[in-house]
Amino acid sequence: MGTCIRSQLFRVFDTETTGLNPRTDAIVELGWAIMRGDGTVLSSNSTLINPGRPIPADTSRVHGIFDCDVAHAPTLDQAVEKHSDLYSPVLPAVCHNAAFDSVLLRCSRRLADGNPRFLCTLRLAENLVPARESYKLESLRSYLGLDTPVDGPAAHRAAGDVATTGLLLKHLIDCYLAAGYPDDIEELFNAASIQRMPFGKHRGKPLSEVPADYIDWLLGRDIDDELRCALRAARSGSLKTSIRAPERRHWWWPF
After folding, report:
1. From CA 60, how far away is CA 18, in angstroms rounded?
2. Any idea which fold 5-191 has?
3. Is residue 251 pLDDT above 60, yes or no?
4. What's the alpha-carbon Rg for the chain, to the nearest Å?
5. What is the pTM of this model?
6. In terms of Cα–Cα distance, which of 107, 88, 91, 92 is closest to 15?
């Protein structure tokens, strides 16, 4: 048995960026907080980041951060060196859409060397909250009635999104434990893995039920690493149990 979830410390991250491609874009603002699984926030902070490139005008209109704001800001590596609470490979890192933020955060040499584990609240919500049209952070905030302390334009900056992600994490942990699932951090990570097909003609179907030929076709495409790993695991499972598919646990919150 591992650490009890409500006593576990988490480091919650959010980024504002130059664009939507984590492999070619860069961070312009970074927010983070250290919290326990019971919702207690121990510290929070944010900093502008100099991305080393111009911020597109369309992107600036979304988050309100312009080239002049980051001209004298630290680089990502400098920010990590300055803020000691940004770095700890021991604490799980929490992001809403970790497949995006984790790539950007690992652009910092120190964060990459630490190789923290990332817990994705988007994936956890997909598995715990009944079928929703949107699992975007703002949509879940509204649907679940999360009372964030930040509102207005600031709600769409890194600090505001960190506050919302922290409240969402606490809500999802409460749902997970209320449903009777194991009070164990490793099991929570399992609950946050991709278990259903996120798009396409098999959207919403458990990966264990997606046809093998469709999985093979997807594996030959440009998909994110998290989905690729999940599909490979599902493909391996189907090969090992070609006569009778194994029973899989689904982490849906029983409303």
Report:
1. 8
2. Nucleotidyltransferase; domain 5 (3.30.420)
3. no
4. 19
5. 0.83
6. 107
